[in-house]
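Tokens in:
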């Protein structure tokens, strides 16, 4: 019985991932976003939402200074960890393809990668600075930054 439950759970995860991927692609298409924007922003936000919801629940329901520190550390630390691991995977793959004897060629879009890293580092620094602002000021600033970021990514995807 346990084996059947595990297989069913795996099938549901795969079905959900396929549905999510198709939905994100269509949302990007409807908003006129390029592939870089869809992968960098929409998919990243969508996959991070469950983790963020758990951490926000810890902050709001857990109470106490310790629960707040754990939640904030998880919210700010997870993207930094993912960006670091992503950079390591890209660097490792580049070295493996450059010095290895592979039949495949690796085409890295350096401009898109640099744009994504610049956006990430800017957002990360801003999130550290905004913790000292009042919630309405921080929300307004984040909204303006998000709108300008989407405009910038749309423009950079169109120029290719």
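Residues out:
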């Amino acid at each position: 019985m346990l084996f059947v439950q595990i297989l069913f759970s795996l099938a549901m995860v795969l079905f959900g991932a396929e549905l999510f991927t198709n939905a994100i692609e269509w949302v990007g298409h409807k908003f006129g976003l390029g592939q870089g924007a869809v992968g960098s922003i929409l998919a990243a936000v969508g996959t991070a939402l469950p983790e963020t919801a758990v951490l926000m629940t810890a902050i709001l329901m857990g109470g106490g200074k310790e629960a707040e520190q754990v939640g904030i550390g998880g919210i700010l630390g997870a993207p930094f960890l993912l960006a670091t691991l992503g950079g390591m995977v890209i660097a490792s793959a580049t070295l493996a393809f450059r010095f290895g004897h592979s039949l495949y060629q690796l085409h890295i879009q350096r401009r898109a990668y640099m744009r994504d890293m610049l956006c990430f580092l800017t957002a990360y620094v801003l999130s550290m600075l905004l913790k000292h602002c009042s919630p309405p000021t921080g929300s307004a600033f984040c909204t303006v930054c998000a709108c300008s970021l989407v405009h910038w990514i749309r423009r950079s995807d169109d120029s290719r």
